[in-house]
Every structure is written in C-alpha cells, then in structure tokens.
C-alpha cells in the first residue's frame, strides 16, 4: 500500500517533465557519488553536491552556480533519472542535498524507507491552471456547463480547490487536498465536473466550457501558463504551499552554512527572474 502511495505522489513531483532536460545524468547503475563525498555535515567545506531531476531542477541549479561561486562555494550537480536514489544518496551522506521533490513525497519516503530527510527550503511550485474551452471567461459560465478536471486523487483535489478559489464551487469545510466531487457543497450553477485521466483533459477543450490542467499537460497542449490561463494557483494557496518543490537534506544539516547559502541563492531575485523568464509561468518561484 505504501508503494502505491508513493506512486501517486510522484505524479506531482515533476510537472514540467515534457520539457527537455539538461546536465549530466545517472541512470541508476550506481549512487552517482564520486566516492569522496562533500561537506557531509562539515561546516568548513566549500563544495555542495546536489542530486537533482533534469527539469526544471537541474536547470535552475545550473543558473545558480555562478551566484554560489561568488559566495565561495562550488556547486556540483548530478542528474538522476529516478525518484529513489536522490534521497538515498543524501541519507547516506554521499550528497549534501537534493532538489526534485515536494513535501508529501518527502514525508512518504521517510515513512516507508526509514530515512531522516528534512525540508531545508521551498524553492518553486508548478501551478494548476484553468484554461478556456468553449468559453473564455468564468463570467460566461451558465447553468449546466461542463468543466473537465483530472481524475486522480491529488490532481483532482487541486483542480477543485482552484475552482473554489475562483468562485465556481464551494467545497465542504476541511476537504482540502483530499477533495473529490463528492465534497462539493455548493454548486449554484449546477456545473458538471467531468473527471478524466489527466492526459485526456486537454483533448476535450472543444467540448467543455473550461479545462483544469497541471503544468506539463498545459505545455503539451500548447498553452502558455502566463498568457493563456484564466486563473492559476497562487503562492499562498493551500496546494502551492503543500506541493512546493524543496531542497532536502539529512536531518541536522539544514542549518549548515553551505546549505543556507544554497537556499538563499535559489530564493534570490536573480533566480526568481530566471524562472519567470524561462518557464513562462509553468514554474513559479515560491514566496513564503
């Protein structure tokens, strides 16, 4: 059952996987470590070894290298193509941090694997958006219109919360990120919520009033999150706070000066501007 939970949670780890990755890679044949380790909890080392997924995480880290160099740190980034080893190599001390996952996945991994990883800082989130179908504005919604949403547990809840935030429906108190259509308490226009497999939602844009998409499927459908979304998750939304992608380290290392420098750079205006310009709203810097 726990393996199933991890599989479900992985759906939100990389919302822009359709983009082309960058950097070196590790295909799972070894730990990705050079064998020398980095600071491994020591405060006087100037090398920071980070395990990352290719997109957007490694791309963002590549942009951060020069900024960290100005602070006296060398950033060594290794790309992994799976979602298990990046946590294992941080737990073992071979790597200092990883950047690929959101908090629910981190928590579930710790519970299942007995690891001791913690969040050292939230960096970005990948927003859900409401996109036009046969109608262009939520003000045009009429009695009985249909809105298509993903049908898997995590993504459906995020879609419903976004619709609630924009006045389309009201959910039962406390439904939160476990919400389903059964938790709709008010639906004054009797809007039909059509639940589809996530990859199919964008394919019904000509048949429904609106579609609610996560970032990678919006990009695949040719949408610009920034230009085309009628509304999308804001940084103060419940979903953004929950599914923020984080720098994860082994417990006890979150206050290390090297890690603090890494997080500071990744939350800097320079990196925020890079994210904004490169990803066109599909990735958004997280504001705490």
Key features of this structure:
elongated, D-Maltodextrin-Binding Protein, domain 2, alpha/beta, single chain, six-stranded mixed β-sheet, 10 helices, disordered N terminus, 288 residues
The whole-number mean of residue pLDDT values reads 87
Based on the coordinates given, report the CATH architecture of the largest domain: 3-Layer(aba) Sandwich
Give the neighbour order of strands across the main sheet. Answer: 2-1-3-12-4-13
Percent helix, as a range, is 25-40%
Rounded to an integer in angstroms, the radius of gyration calculated over CA atoms is 20 Å
Give the CATH level 1 class of the largest domain: Alpha Beta
User: How would you spell out the order of helices and strands?
Assistant: HEHEHEHEEEHEEEEHHEHEHHE
CATH fourth-tier homologous superfamily of the largest domain: Periplasmic binding protein-like II
* Extended strand count: 13
Envelope shape: elongated
Largest sheet: 6 strands, mixed
Derived from helix and strand composition plus strand pairing, the structural class reads alpha/beta
Give me the number of helical elements: 10
The low-confidence runs, each spanning 5 or more residues with pLDDT under 50, are 1-5, 14-24, 27-38
Give the CA-CA distance, first to last residue.
Answer: 33 Å
Return the CATH topology of the largest domain: D-Maltodextrin-Binding Protein, domain 2
Count structural domains.
2
Strand coverage percent? 15-25%
């Amino acid at each position: 059952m726990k393996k199933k939970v991890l599989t479900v949670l992985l759906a939100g780890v990389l919302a822009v996987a359709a983009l082309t990755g960058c950097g070196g890679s590790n295909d799972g044949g070894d730990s990705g470590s050079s064998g020398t380790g980095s600071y491994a909890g020591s405060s006087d080392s100037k090398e920071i070894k980070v395990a990352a997924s290719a997109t957007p995480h490694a791309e963002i880290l590549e942009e951060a290298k020069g900024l960290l160099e100005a602070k006296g740190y060398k950033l060594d980034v290794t790309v992994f193509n799976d979602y298990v080893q990046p946590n294992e190599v941080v737990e073992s001390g071979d790597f200092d941090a990883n950047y690929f996952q959101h908090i629910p996945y981190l928590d579930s991994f710790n519970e299942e694997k007995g690891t001791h990883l913690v969040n050292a800082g939230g960096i970005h989130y990948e927003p859900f958006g409401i996109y036009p179908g046969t109608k262009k504005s939520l003000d045009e919604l009429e009695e009985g219109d249909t809105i298509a949403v993903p049908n898997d547990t995590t993504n459906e809840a995020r879609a419903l919360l976004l619709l609630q935030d924009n006045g389309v429906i009201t959910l039962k108190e406390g439904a939160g990120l476990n919400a389903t259509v059964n938790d709709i308490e008010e639906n004054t226009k009797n809007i039909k919520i059509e639940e589809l497999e996530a990859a199919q939602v964008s394919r019904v844009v000509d048949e429904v009033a609106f579609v609610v998409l996560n970032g990678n499927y919006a990009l695949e459908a040719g949408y610009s999150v920034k230009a085309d979304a009628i509304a999308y998750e804001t940084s103060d939304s419940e979903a953004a706070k929950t599914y923020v992608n984080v720098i994860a380290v082994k417990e006890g290392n979150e206050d290390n000066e090297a890690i603090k420098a890494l997080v500071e750079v990744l939350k800097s205006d320079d990196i925020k501007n890079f994210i904004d310009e490169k990803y066109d709203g599909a990735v958004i810097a997280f504001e705490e």
